[in-house]
Design goal:
171 residues; alpha/beta; 5 helices
Length: 171
């Protein structure tokens, strides 16, 4: 099968830039734990099915624009982000989903493969507390075909995230 997903020289499924970011953070051992799948893991549902885990064990890395400034929100795969709660948390006037080009420009990765850290530019990071309900969560490793496991507390720490409650509640 031919894909456009990059693979680094060691055969890892991680995007080369993300593999380098892991090494720079002292997490080089994670490069070998990246799992690459033949089919896309672009959505939380696709990733959970490929891994064989609960949907809530997927860590979504979502870029929003808070008063036109990019912000990363880390959310469990079974939940949706409440934009009003994000707006209040940031003290912003308006929060919207970032456009595709803003996501790529800010992170250096395409939507569906954005990892929780190792981005091109530094952004503010909000991490929903729901991630802490698991011992291990799975996040994108820079491509729409690859994921890596990590303890959520470590993931939030390496992302320099602030723990918040920003998930949508059932009506």
């Amino acid at each position: 099968m031919t894909t456009t997903a990059a693979t680094d020289a060691e055969g890892s499924g991680a995007h080369p830039r993300f593999a380098e970011a892991l090494r720079e953070l002292g997490l080089g051992d994670l490069v070998g734990r990246v799992r690459r799948f033949p089919d896309a893991t672009r959505t939380a549902e696709e990733a959970a099915a490929a891994i064989g885990c609960e949907l809530s064990q997927i860590c979504k890395s979502l870029i929003f624009a808070a008063d036109r400034v990019p912000v990363l929100v880390l959310m469990d795969g079974a939940s949706r982000v409440d934009l009003e709660l994000v707006r209040k948390e940031l003290g912003a006037d308006k929060v919207t989903r970032a456009k595709v080009d803003v996501v790529r420009e800010t992170t250096g990765y395409a939507i569906g493969g954005v990892p929780p850290f190792g981005h091109r530019t530094r952004t503010r990071v909000l991490a929903d507390r729901s991630l802490l309900e698991h011992d291990v969560v799975w996040a994108a490793a820079g491509t729409p075909y690859s994921v890596f496991p990590m303890a959520p507390e470590d993931l939030v720490a390496h992302a320099d995230g602030t723990l918040v409650d920003v998930r949508e509640r059932a009506a």
